[in-house]
Model the fold of this input.
Amino acid sequence: MSDQVLPNENFEVPSDLEAFEQEFSQLSPEELTDIRPLPRVSMHAFCESPQLLSTIESVANDRRMARVHVKAVSGGIRAATEFFSEAPTPNLILLEANMAYEELLEDLDRLAEVCDVGTKVVLVGHINDVQMYRDLVRRGVSEYIVMPVGQIELIQALSDLFSNPENDPLGKSIAFIGAKGGVGSSTMAHNIGWAISTVHQQDVIITDFDVAFGTAGLDFNEDPPQTIADAIKAADRLDDQFLERLLTKCSERLNLLTAPAVLDQTCDYDDEFFSHMLELLQNSAPYTVLDLPHLWSAWNKHLLLGADEIVITVAPDLANLRNVKNLLDLIGQERRGDREPFLIINQTGMQKRPEIKAKDFVAALERTDFIEVPFDPATFGLAANNGQMISELSASGKIADIFDKLASDLTGRTEAPKASKSLFAPLLGKLKKSK
Done:
C-alpha cells in the first residue's frame, strides 16, 4: 500500500519520519517547562468527537498558545475540505478522522487540492500503527496523533512542529512575586538570578518591574542612566537592539534592567507591551528573572501567569497564608499544564515574633514541598548595604547553599564543575574512572 502513496504537494512535509516511533511518555513537572510557546500562527481544528473538542478548548487557553489564533468546530476532513474550498487555509489544520484507511487517503487527497502551499496538517486518529503513520507523512501529513490525546501531549506536538533546531531556543522566564509586601521577594529573585549566572554559568537578565520602588540597582550597587522606564517610553520602537542598550552588565553572565525608582508617573501600563518586551528578553538570554512588584494589575497578572516558572515568597504569618492560598488557587486554575509554583518561606525563626511553623504553614496549603530561609538580619543587612549578593559574602554559607539548590531546581542544572588547582587533578580523575 505504501508503495502507491504519493505526496500531496500543498502540504508542508516534515523531515523526520521516525518521530512517531518515539511514543509520548508522561511528562515530569521539570519537563513541562521545556515545551516552548508557539509563534503567532493561526490554527483551525475540525473535531469529530466531543472529547477532542474539549481538549482543543483547554489547549487554546494554555499560556504557551497565547499567540495562536485557535478556531475549533465539529466536523472531520470532509467538513474541512468544504470550508477551505471557499476560504484561505491557516498555518495549521488539525483534523480528527475515524474511518477506513483507503477512505482516509481519498479524503486527504481532496483536502490537499484546496490547501495553500506550506500549510501544516495534524491528523488525530484512532489507530495506533507505525506503518500507517509513515504512509501519512509521505502523503504530506505533518503529524499523526492517536486518540485519546491529552492537553500537554497535544501542545508538545504542536510546539515541536514550529520549533527550528537551527535557531537558538527561546529563553525561560522565572517570575518572582511576594504574597505580601516586604517579604523579601526581590532579594530572593536577585540572589537566585546571581546563582544561575555564577554557579551554573548561564546568561541571565534580571528585570525589575517595580518601576516606582524597585531595588535591583541598589542590591547590585548599580545606578545606570537607562532603566525599564526608557523601554516603556519607547514602546513603539522597542526592538532587540534598543533593549540591548538599556541593559546594564553586572558581571560576565548577568545583565540588569533596573527600575528608575521615581514617582513621576503611575504604573498603568499596557500588558501587550510587556508581552513584547518579555519576548525580546527571552530571545536575548537563556534565563530571564522577572522581579514583579506586589500589586495586582492586568500587566502584572499577565507576566506572572505567562512565566515558565513561578516563585512565591511568603513570611510565616496569617496574612501571607491567606494571600498565598488565593494566589495558588488562581495559578492552579489558570496554569493546569504547568509545574506548581515554588514556595519560599522567608524570615523564619525571628525572635520574639509569633509565627506559623513552616510545616504547619504548608500543611494548611495542602502542600509538602517548600524552601525555608531562616531570619539572618546580619548577613542580609550587610549584603544590602554593600550592594552584594549573599554568596559574595559567604559562598559556602547555609543561605547561599539554599539559593544554589533552588537555582538548580529552577533550571534543571547541576552545579558547574569547579576547576581544580592541583597539578595531579587530571591524573587522579583518570584513576577514579578506571576503578
